[in-house]
Amino acid sequence: FNLRDLSKVFQGVLSLRVQHCPDVRTFARLWAHENQRVFQDRLIDTDDKDKFSHWLHELLKRKFQFDCDFEETFVKKPILFGDYLKMGVTGDDRVYEPINDNAKLPKLMDTYLEEYNLSSPK
């Protein structure tokens, strides 16, 4: 890992508009998501990924006073943010926001895939 990776975490954190970050809890979740996206996604060993999640959980509790259950936060309902929840939106209209309903994601991704397949030559 290098400083460029650290800058990607800051870039991701700064992608969230103020009106979509109403409290410290949302900011802490965003910070955790960006660290997972930049660092944890590069780990290949399941044990290392688990250690990273536990380390991140401890940092959330210690630095952000974020009282959360590990299983609930990192296993059952992972922390996700994205700018793809509203289809057909481009440029400044795209909103980087928390994804609160993970059950909608498979259908949304299927819709994106269908749209891509229709617009791409075979």
What this model shows, in words?
By secondary structure, this protein is mainly alpha-helical. Helix content is 56%, strand content 3%. It is built from five helices and two strands, in the order H-H-H-H-E-E-H. It has a two-stranded antiparallel ribbon with strand order 1-2. Helix 2 (24-38) packs antiparallel against helix 3 (46-64). The termini are far apart.
- Structural class from helices and strands? mainly alpha
The helix/strand series, from N terminus to C terminus, equals HHHHEEH
State the strand order across the main sheet. Answer: 1-2
What are the low-pLDDT stretches, counting only 5+ consecutive residues below 50?
Answer: none
Radius of gyration: 16 Å
